[in-house]
Amino acid sequence: MQEIRIKHYWDAIDEESNDRDNAKWDNRIYTPFHFDNGDTKKAITGIKSPDRWSQSQKQRAKILFAQYLDINKVSNLIHDLRLIFSKTKDKTVAYTKLTHSYNKVTDSGFRSFNSISAIIHIH
Questions:
Q1: Which end of the chain is more exposed for a tag (fewer CB within 10 A), N or C?
Q2: What's the whole-model pTM score?
């Protein structure tokens, strides 16, 4: 998720720089875009694990996931994997869930998950 989040962060910086330059050339005062919660596009890309979200972070995540569908998908994959290790007590159930998670990760098409997929497959 970090790789995708950082890509969007840098895209937001580029967009903001272009908008700032265009405003300068047009003799306008630059005002960055803000989402309903007050965050800019740069700020909205920061996110933690869902189980540690405050109310404002839940609002941020809702906006982030609507804006960046790939971050939403990656976040769900990571969260599902975390839940397997933190909540599953029965080894057989864990193996089954891990197999399903492996398939989702493999089907996702995110190259960043290749090493995790290989580790899961090996073990």
A1: C
A2: 0.67
Instruction: Return d(Cα 65, Cα 54) in angstroms, integer.
Output: 16
Q: Enumerate the domain spans of the chain.
A: 2-122
Residues in the chain: 123
Chunked into runs of 10 residues, the chain (123 residues) has average pLDDT values of 82 91 93 88 75 81 89 85 84 84 80 70 67
Q: At what angle do helices 91-108 and 114-122 cross, to 10 degrees?
A: 150
Tabulate helix, strand, coil % of the chain (nearest 5).
75, 0, 25
Distance separating the N- and C-terminal Cα atoms of the chain: 23
Question: Exposed/middle/buried for 104, CB within 10 Å: 0-12, 13-18, 19+?
Answer: middle
Question: What's the CA gap between 95 and 38, in Å, rounded?
Answer: 43
